[in-house]
Design goal:
The protein is α/β, with parallel strands linked by helices and 528 residues long. The protein has 18 helices and 15 strands. The relative contact order is 0.18. Bound molecules: beta-D-glucopyranose. This is Glucokinase.
Length: 528
């Protein structure tokens, strides 16, 4: 009984009420607009120079790679030009030591090697033909330009973008920490390593995963409704949305196409409210932050995304294990355990190691509503080496995990709700859906994550239940890869047409629709 009560008390610390959601939305809007005014704000609001979105007719074969979290993904994408595509895909876990390597070349060299392996496995004919040609062609690089694969590079960290394939790393997130790379052009770092291996590949475009998701969603769901926002809820979290250029008050260097009146903004909302004006801050959040590689930043991300949720739960469980009054994962004797055994936490259990509890265990806990929690108990044994957990233990674990997961979903709604309000689309006299493309392990696999988001959106002033119904949140699986391919295509077309500056190039009349509907910064929206 003591265990159940103490669990309830702890879970209550993760409650995030409707009132909290509304305060969060107001502050999010304030920080979004602050980021549009000047640099150096907690939400970076990075102009991407993308001023239009695809319409589904784009065609061609492109390579795309994706570095953004736990895995490195390489894919080739055949855009069929009829809103469909075919994708060949490979994925490899990034060795932990490379995430904190001494030299940028250690990581980027590894990435180039994976591209080579992918080409040899999936495009051997093309690859071999290029190698043959290379030996016979006398250009300095050894290739004719048209024989080179165009590659879209999805790089999902904060980057100050200065061209279609040029951008400097502002800071690492999600456990990466290679100081050597900060301030450098990440496309050049990758190209150097590709050239070292003599691969027929040109890094043609640089794109954040959220921008890619927005592009991919626009490509696959064209029509009257254009997509407003691409968001990731995976290892990390972030969103890119379509903003009215007149709302961007800070200087946007260089020339770019202004005809659509719109530009995609990479919010970098993982750093929303680093100053903790409104975000919840339990003792567990504080401990997690202090022991992270980047204390004081990505504060929103540390409460929302997959990399951190398991760690919050782990810190709670460790705290509970220290409390002798509640006997979590501990039995006085076998009569106290419904399986008539005694619980043992095995040596080397992840429960005692930082990052030792994978957030996927939370999904299993949330999905297991069986009376005896058998799948959760099995998984506790498998993943954490906790043998013969009792029903009460499993229930306590589930309560804590669900509270942390629910808070994350409701915080996610703060970000989505604020972007919807900023767009002013709810004020349009239309019943067209407001389209949002999402990707990432959390939103894809965590049970009822989207439902919990909708529930919170319905509580937002200015959205309400009717507004929430108009918001369509759809999965854009592998959006970042397809989006990178789409931007590589734009880059290739530009080259063909001799356009040097892509900023002047990208335009699409589909985007014009938004222009009239997004209010000026500071202009009132429907929020009270
Ligand atoms: C990065 C973003 C990225 C997000 C999702 C964050 O940690 O800062 O650039 O979009 O993770 O992958």
């Amino acid at each position: 009984m003591a265990l159940a009560e103490e669990t309830k008390r702890i879970a209550a610390q993760f409650e995030y009420t409707d009132e909290d959601v509304n305060k969060g939305v107001q502050e999010f809007l304030r920080q979004m607009n602050e980021g549009l005014q000047h640099d150096g704000t907690s939400m970076s609001q990075i102009p991407t120079y993308v001023t239009g979105v695809p319409n589904g007719t784009e065609k061609g074969l492109y390579l795309a790679v994706d570095l953004g979290g736990t895995n490195f993904r390489v894919c080739s994408i055949h855009l069929n030009g009829d809103t469909t595509f075919n994708l060949t895909y490979s994925k490899i876990a990034i060795p932990k030591e490379l995430m904190v390597a001494e030299q940028a070349s250690d990581l980027f060299g590894f990435l180039a090697k994976q591209i080579e392996l992918f080409l040899r496995t999936h495009h051997e004919d093309h690859f071999a033909a290029h190698v043959r040609r290379r030996q016979t062609v006398s250009t300095p690089e050894g290739y004719r330009d048209e024989q080179i694969f165009r590659l879209g590079f999805t790089f999902s960290f904060p980057v100050r973008q200065v061209g279609i394939n040029k951008g400097t790393l502002m800071r690492w997130t999600k456990g990466f920490d290679i100081p050597d790379a900060v301030g450098k052009d990440v496309c050049a770092l990758l190209q150097q390593e590709i050239d070292r291996l003599h691969l027929p590949v040109k890094v043609a475009a640089l794109v954040n995963d959220t921008v890619g998701t927005l592009m991919a969603r626009s490509y696959t769901s064209p029509g009257k409704t254009s997509t407003l926002l691409g968001a990731i809820f995976g290892t990390g979290t972030n969103g890119a949305y379509v903003e009215k250029i007149t709302n961007i008050k800070k200087p946007v260097e260089g020339d770019y196409d202004k005809t659509t009146g719109l530009m995609v903004i990479n919010t970098e909302w993982g750093s929303f409210d680093n100053q903790l004006n409104v975000l919840p801050n339990t003792s567990y959040d504080i401990e997690l932050d202090q022991k992270s590689v980047n204390p004081g930043i990505q504060i929103f991300e540390k409460r929302v995304s997959g990399m951190f949720l398991g760690e919050i739960v782990r810190l709670v469980v460790v705290d509970m294990l220290k409390n002798p009054a509640i006997s979590l994962f501990k039995d006085e004797n076998s009569s106290h355990n419904d399986w008539k055994s005694t619980t043992t936490i095995g040596e080397g259990s992840g429960i005692f190691q930082q990052w030792g509890l994978d957030s996927s265990l939370m999904s299993i806990a949330a999905a297991d509503s069986t009376p005896d929690q058998s799948s959760l108990r099995q998984e506790l044994e498998k993943q954490l080496n906790i043998y013969a957990a009792s029903l009460e233990d499993a229930q306590a674990f589930r309560t804590v995990a669900n509270a942390v997961g629910r808070r994350a979903a409701r915080l996610s709604a703060v970000a989505l709700g604020a972007v919807v309000l900023q767009s002013g689309k709810l004020q349009e006299a239309s019943d067209e859906p407001i389209d949002i493309g999402v990707d990432g392990s959390l939103v894809e696999h965590y049970p009822f994550f989207r439902d919990m988001i909708y529930e919170a959106l319905a509580a937002v002033d200015g959205i309400g239940p009717d507004g929430a119904k108009r918001i369509r949140i759809g999965i854009a699986k592998d959006g970042s890869g397809v989006g990178a391919a789409l931007i590589a295509l734009v880059a290739a077309n530009m080259e063909k047409k001799g356009v040097v500056d892509y900023l002047n190039y990208i335009k699409n009349d589909v985007a014009q629709k938004w222009a009239a509907t997004i209010p000026e910064a500071g202009e009132s929206t429907t929020i009270a």
